[in-house]
Amino acid sequence: xxxxxxxxxxxxxxxxxxxxxxxxxxxxxxxxxxxxxxxxxxxxxxxxxxxxxxxxxxxxxxxxxxxxxxxxxxxxxxxxxxxxxxxxxxxxxxxxxxxxxxxxxxxxxxxxxxxxxxxxxxxxxxxxxxxxxxxxxxxxxxxxxxxxxxxxxxxxxxxxxxxxxxxxxxxxxxxxxxxxxxxxxxxxxxxxxxxxxxxxxxxxxxxxxxxxxxxxxxxxxxxxxxxxxxxxxxxxxxxxxxxxxxxxxxxxxxxxxxxxxx
Length: 262
What we know:
Blueprint: E1 7-10, E2 16-21, H1 35-40, E3 43-48, H2 65-78, E4 85-89, H3 91-102, E5 110-113, H4 121-137, H5 139-150, H6 153-158, H7 160-171, H8 175-187, H9 192-195, E6 203-208, H10 216-225, E7 229-234, H11 241-244, H12 246-258
Parallel strand pairs: 2-3, 2-4, 4-5, 5-6, 6-7
Antiparallel strand pairs: 1-3
């Protein structure tokens, strides 16, 4: 693990471990609103900040998906976690999926939350356009684009403090570090086509009904591609359910994690 990786643990050390991986431009606090319910379900929650995010430094050089996979492996080793449950959202799901393909024995159950898979050319173009906007116009523009994709205008009006927290988190990123991570997100995982079927962990693939990037159609295809997958679409939600509707997110994830492995 990179020595400067920030890790936070909540819940008893003896409880069943669940590692949560956050989305690009955010940090471990994106799960703050669901921690109490997850801990209350009898779990030890391990969160960390991705490379170049939050309180984790940005190593020199370019970034690859394997760098993030190695960081997750380092977190497991540092926290003495042999095979915890792992769940990631957006780029966190990309990382969790890649980890499960590369280290299948180190994952008990897998949550791929609002995770891209097999993007169409139009979806790829949209990602490239947002990358170009970040490169040319900076994080203020990206924050506006993200918030309006992630939350409806009505929801934003009802939850101004959550919107402000998301905006502050995005614009406070180091632009160079953000771009490294977003390029990884845009590039995806080159092993998807050949190795996605090697994931052996029971897998929940979950998204929001209104998520324009990690669509329900994408979610059903991803669930069918893994060996032991199930798809779930959360009604009326978008790309960041842990912030948009913490209760719906927590309940769905806990229900999956509580299922007995046959």
